[in-house]
Amino acid sequence: MKTNVMESLFADLDRNGPIPLYYQVEQRLEKAILDGQIPAGARLENEVALGERLNLSRPTIRRAIQDLVDKGLLVRRRGIGTQVVHGRVTRGVELTSLFDDLAKGEKVPTTVLLSYAVEKANDTVADRLGVQLGSPVLHIKRLRIADGVPVAVLENWLPEQFLDITEHDLGELGLYEILRGRGVTIRVAKQKIGARTSNTAEAGLLDTDRGTALLTMERAAFDNAGVGIEYGSHYYRPDLYSFEVTLVEK
Amino acid sequence: MKTNVMESLFADLDRNGPIPLYYQVEQRLEKAILDGQIPAGARLENEVALGERLNLSRPTIRRAIQDLVDKGLLVRRRGIGTQVVHGRVTRGVELTSLFDDLAKGEKVPTTVLLSYAVEKANDTVADRLGVQLGSPVLHIKRLRIADGVPVAVLENWLPEQFLDITEHDLGELGLYEILRGRGVTIRVAKQKIGARTSNTAEAGLLDTDRGTALLTMERAAFDNAGVGIEYGSHYYRPDLYSFEVTLVEK
DNA sequence: TTTGTCAAATTGTTCGTACAATATGACACC
DNA sequence: GGTGTCATATTGTACGAACAATTTGACAAA
Fold first, then answer.
1. How many domains does chain B have?
2. Residue of chain A minimizing CA distance to B131
3. I want to staple A133 with a disulfide (CB 3.0 to 4.6 A). Which of A126, A249, B33, B137 is the partner?
């Protein structure tokens, strides 16, 4: 039975296309696990046998499995084998924006642009983005709404190369979507998650009472050359949003 | 000059000992980066040359570099090379407890055990730990204090195998330290971070006013066999504690 | 000047192979 | 019955090799 699942899963790998073989295997395995086709606690076939059956070398199979171990979906023990982790399997926090998160669920995200201006970078912004103090940066502030309910206030600063992003763009799309559309790939992000009490203005924007708790997040994002792309300081309604993280010890 | 740094760094690898070669290289490289010996933005030698100089194969070198890329310390681009990331390099959140976090800083952590009891697992606990509903679990509640100031209230549930942890242990050591001492290795943890408003009792414990914001964290931790080790529901004083996460897109 | 092409440099993917380390279960031995 | 030993299964580490993909810079061509 397990054999059938595997066979069907890995039936037709594209050996000539641009997508790496290990990645194709990884994706299908991940889907099978998240869909429950391979149940929690189930043991996978050993690496060598898998390789033989799929006509792939052991390193290729290992790479696919290792990536899923790093994601916290699989667990392996020398001498024993590889298993799907017990416990509810959830996708961890990935490098996506709130807009993406909401769009992935059933919510309909909309955005109100609260302010839009080109400013000179202050100490904090210059430090986080790695740009010169006083250099021009785009400063935007948006209210994110899901199904008509305000969820978060997002404040972002972007370096000089993005000054041409228009107000219209920001009303239509999420910031990360705009960046992707311009060919920018975010590779590393450093986040700091905390909480504080809201003041009157903040509570007003989120349609709650002054003095209620806010979930806060600061993020600095960098592309694959290590250049600062975006610095954000956001606050969320904690009854509507939270952060999930999966940590894996290496 | 760069050459000298490298030479001295990788001078004597232990080729017979139990520590993998890639790990020895990784550790030394990481230290050199964190210490600033290799400055932000500096370019590393290419993989092949590094391998030749250290008498290691390219896969071994690659493994070491890849691990540091995954940690967000290095960045590499095909056709270009490998660089130390720009921006402040900070260690990300690791699989440690608040106790460890505080002990690593200059703070002196102490603990007050608020309650200690063996209970039957309710729905939530049974689900998160993957144990039978109604099976015995150890339920503890602790107040964590740093330098005399209360920082967090920690509530944990542990499965049957840990019922023999004593009240005395919990006063002396952090929970994760106790677990490590028993040979338990935590491999995967799923955390959910949020916020809420405190009630009178909670505010009293943390020496703040009722109605101030709390930072909350739920965590389920599993060992390398995927067995549930610990489920915790914690709240923190947000002016004294926050979570830092480094995300790396693969 | 601009554009296209090509070579060089570097990381990315994939294969094959060998041996080491660890957990399990079977079996012999005391 | 208990205990140690050994074979087996499986993942972990390490090597070597080849070719692909991408970026840069140099150079030629329009």
1. 2
2. A87
3. A126
Q: Of B30, B59, B84, which marks where a domain is finished?
A: B84
Instruction: Check if residue A97 sits with its Cβ under 7 angstroms from strand C.
Output: no
CB contact burial A35-68 (16+ within 10 A = b; e otherwise): eeebebeeebbebeebbeebebeeebbbbbbebb
Q: What is the pLDDT of residues A11-55, one digit of tens each?
A: 677 888 888 999 999 999 999 988 888 888 888 999 999 999 899
Predicted confidence band at B22 (pLDDT cuts at 50, 70, 90)?
Answer: very high
> Which nucleotides on chain C have any atom < 7 A from a protein Cβ?
8-18, 20-24
Q: What is the CATH number of the domain that holds A136?
A: 3.40.1410.10
Cα–Cα separations (whole angstroms), residue B14 to B10, B25, B32, B59, B61? 10, 10, 18, 18, 15
In-domain check, residue B250: no
Residue with tokens 């030698």: B45
How many Å does it take to go from CA B80 to C1' C1?
28
Is any atom of nucleic acid chain D found less than 7 Å from the CB of residue A82? yes
The reply to whether residue A93 touches residue B228, judged by beta carbons under 8 angstroms, is no
Which residue in this structure is represented by tokens 């405190």? B198
- Contact: A185, B87; criterion CB under 8 Å: no
* A10 and A62 in a common domain: yes
Task: Give B93's pLDDT tier (boundaries 50, 70, 90).
Answer: very low
CATH number reported for the structural domain that contains residue B69 in this entry: 1.10.10.10
Secondary structure of residue B85 in the 3-state scheme: coil
Cβ of A80 less than 7 A from strand C: yes
Q: What region does A226 belong to: left with phi over 0, alpha with psi -120 to 50, or beta?
A: left
Q: Is pLDDT at A1 greater than 50 in this prediction? A: no
Structural domain boundaries enclosing A202: 98-236
Distance A16 CA to C14 C1' (A): 12
User: Which of A52, A84, A116 delimits the end of a domain?
Assistant: A84
Q: Which residue is nearest to nucleotide D14 (CA to C1')?
A: B60
Report CB contact under 8 Å: B72, A190: yes
Q: Is residue A116 part of a domain?
A: yes
**With an 8 Å Cβ cutoff, are B190 and A245 in contact?**
yes
Cβ contact B79 with chain D strand, < 7 A: yes
Gap between the Cα atoms of A235 and A230, Å rounded? 16
Residue B92 lies in a domain: no
